[in-house]
Amino acid sequence: DAKTTQPTSMDCAEGRAANLPCNHSTISGNEYVYWYRQIHSQGPQYIIHGLKNNETNEMASLIITEDRKSSTLILPHATLRDTAVYYCIVRVFGTGGFKTIFGAGTRLFVKA
Amino acid sequence: DAGVIQSPRHEVTEMGQEVTLRCKPISGHDYLFWYRQTMMRGLELLIYFNNNVPIDDSGMPEDRFSAKMPNASFSTLKIQPSEPRDSAVYFCASRRGEETQYFGPGTRLLVL
Question: Which residues of B touch A47 (CB under 8 A)?
């Protein structure tokens, strides 16, 4: 089972920041938070990941709370092409290493 | 790098026929994953390999499904015999060690 909970859907106006929350209250100290997105049945696309410090790359920023029980993905200037399902993932340690289990994600609608 | 390559991109077959999906992971990656995505069940992890060895096949739905990885650059997912309920998008993904996982474009399977 996925170890995260996310809102089912969110709206965002084009050009504004999109802030996507994620709860991961059972996260362990050495587990990373990963974010992927999936645009209309394409393969999931990696966005960003972090452990405890805030992270930024060319796509997004990731803000992780100090207790690490939640995080927020920020798309600073959302465009129509950012409409997608966004998945917040904490990988599950299995028999042979970590495996990525997807939950339902948040469906982000960016509106003109 | 060309990324994860999957073939065919689309497959239409009749119930009872054998279906073989193919995947070429990113060079140097030692983990390979097969996922299935449907509207009802979302993205499900079927099986994953480490260094060509199957590690966890607990997600494989039934004996009609089988997966092999004969070498580090090739894997197959076979369904025999296929059924209409197997219609889905099948994704392959790969990663190196515990680093980021990357997905292929998927194979859209329709079983009539």
Answer: none
Q: What is the pLDDT along chain A (112 residues), one digit of tens a residue?
A: 668 999 999 999 999 999 999 999 988 888 889 999 999 879 999 999 999 889 999 999 999 999 999 999 999 999 999 999 999 999 887 777 788 888 899 999 999 9
Long-range CB contact pairs, A22-27, < 8 A, 24+ = A22/A70, A22/A71, A22/A72, A22/A73, A22/A88, A23/A69, A23/A70, A24/A68, A24/A69, A24/A70, A24/A71, A24/A88, A24/A90, A25/A69, A25/A70, A27/A3, A27/A68, A27/A69, A27/A90
| Residues of B in Cβ contact (< 8 Å) with A102 | 35, 42-43, 45
**Cβ A42–B89 below 8 Å, yes or no?**
no
